[in-house]
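Hi everyone, sorry if this is the wrong subforum. Our group has a chain we'd like a structural model of before ordering constructs, and none of us has done structure prediction before. Sequence below.
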Amino acid sequence: MKLETFGWDVDGDGIAHAVFDVPGRSMNTLTAKAVADIIAISQEVASNDAIKGLVISSGKPSGFCAGADLGEMNERSGGGKKEDLSEAELKKKQFDQGFSLNKTLRELETCGKPVAIALNGLALGGGLEVALACHYRVAANDNPKLQFGLPEAKIGLLPGAGGTQRLPRLVGVQAALPLILQGESFNAEKAFSMGVVQELAPSSETVDKAKAWVKANPTAKAPWDVKGFKVPGGVPHRSPGAGQVQTMANAMLAAKTYGNYPAQKNILSCVYEGIQVPIDAALRIETRYFINTQQRPEAKAMIRSLFLSMQELSKGGNRPAGYPKTEFKKIAVIGAGLMGAGIAYVQAKAGIPTVLVDVSKENAEKGKDYSRRLVEKDVSRGKSTQEKGDKLLDLITTTDNYDDVKGADLVIEAVFENEELKAKITGMAEAVLDETAVFGSNTSTLPITGLAKASKRPENFIGIHFFSPVERMGLVEIISGEKTSEETLAKAVDYVLAIRKTPIAVNDSRGFYTSRCFGTYTREGMEMLAEGIKPAIIENVGRQSGMPMGPLEVSDSVGLDTALKVTRATAEAAGIDLQTDDRTQFLAWLVEDQGRVGRKAGKGFYDYNEKGRPDQLWPDLNTRLEVKVDECPPELKQELKNRFLVRQAIEVARCFDEGVITDARDADIGSILAWGFAPYTGGCCSYVDLIWGIKEFVAEADRLAKKYGERFEPPALLRDMAEKGEGFYDRFPPAGKAEKVAA
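Answer:
Right subforum, don't worry. Here is the predicted structure as tokens:
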């Protein structure tokens, strides 16, 4: 028996030991070769009379298995060579391919010999499914990083190797559904208390414990193969309690997903149908739902963006090649307000010595208080220790003296959005900086090329745009000005990776990429408001389209006064007169006449409670606006959803057309992480490429432009792509920047 991803030996007692250890990788995944090895192992155990049982373990200290190899899976589902098959032949081929691992694990489970697994770390997705097919599971109780889970739903898939059938049979439908639907992970202690694992032991003893169990249980069977087995908590159609769980799950799913996530709907159906039949039939049901889900455009989009592209960018996939990696020994943050204080915290948390500068030592200390509060919260919740918290705080030095900035590898300017003030700060900082130091401006709208005019070294000047709250938002937008060097961009990417966030790289423009495109969502909400559509309809449909908030609530969160200021500044820069613009005049009335500036004041489009949560839409909105549409039939709902999402995607296309963004991965990840563009679409580019298709999208944009105005007009780039049948990932693939960083 030749194995490529498993080690293999059989001891004197006839106990076989298969050690999962994919060569050249720090973590095991279920590749096609690994599946082939599992098939071979299963056949060997079943057919070799000298083998009395099997123990499976991992040769990786990181854990057993992180799940299926999604890159490989994505390539397989993407097509390949077309075959001349009938529909029935194609369906059979797809089923056989999808069922192969399920079939193998079931054969292992029923081989007539005991099978145990020793779990030393991660066992996620397909890794946990392999474990569930074993008769006995021993988990390490001394590894705080150990996690179990079925996270497939988070990337638009469902577990396809028995997870939807074995887990409910082990722990009951009620306990299993949240874990599968939400992709929740859990630790060894919870796994033991639920019955997912049967024994806990130190990592060094898990294999011996598993072998001991195999020796003591020569006739082991899975619980569901024992006559008289009953599902914990009952089966939905036979048990009133279990039936109620099913009904509640349906209602909760509809309320949370609005029908946008096919995987969750299919998971619910899969569990409900499968739990009512014997396990062999149930596994076939699971495979059919898995294939249906895998082939949906939402799954392809989510796998591509939320897993593959996210992984690539989080490793510096958009970093210019050929420059040595920068290690940051000291970074200065100028401006100790909310943004600067948050930036200082994430730097210190990453172990980087940080100088926090403000106009006075007192102000700088107030900025450091932000870090103190976060540390206190983590310590009180057991997420950190006082010793670790003190070390973090010791890394932040507060000052009002620019001499303390000397020696910094990087300066992050995070002062008020005022060009004159930023120019002054630039000069003061550069006076004490080394020639190789990078100056980064944390600005959300001001063009970097203009700000760089105040710099003596514009090639070292770059935009580093954080999102609020800094410690919770995982994205950083890096903006290159006209004179920013590739080396400076490489250093900025290194910085973002050093503070454990995901960078996207864009070029200069007013509003850059994220702020510019994000604003189209809120403005489309204002357009609908001006058309007389009832505010509640606008908000509800905004959420139903997949956005995290309705556009009016988003406007409140950003600040209506800020929105008004940006609108006026943008119009002034473009030479546009807003005196006759009804939308701007309405916003001015709301802010300047009514004092309703948004969530921060407790009143905007919404009225807010003392905890800052929206109580209700402001009833007096209608005194200024006439409501002409107060009902929302399905066809109107779809029209409004299309308007919200197509409008944003059109602006993204314009950014590509103008060279603001050049990599489809940056665009997709930026749209999801920065402003919450419907995650089920995979981001704005994937929404066009996969959910619509380029030709269909352009046709819909043309229809909307004819009906609602030129803001929906596709740019020439989109028309050219439609004519050639190209998607964004065809026209704007990764730019070949992901080469290994020079040592």
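For your construct planning: The longest helix spans residues 634-657. Confidence is low (pLDDT under 50) at residues 736-743.
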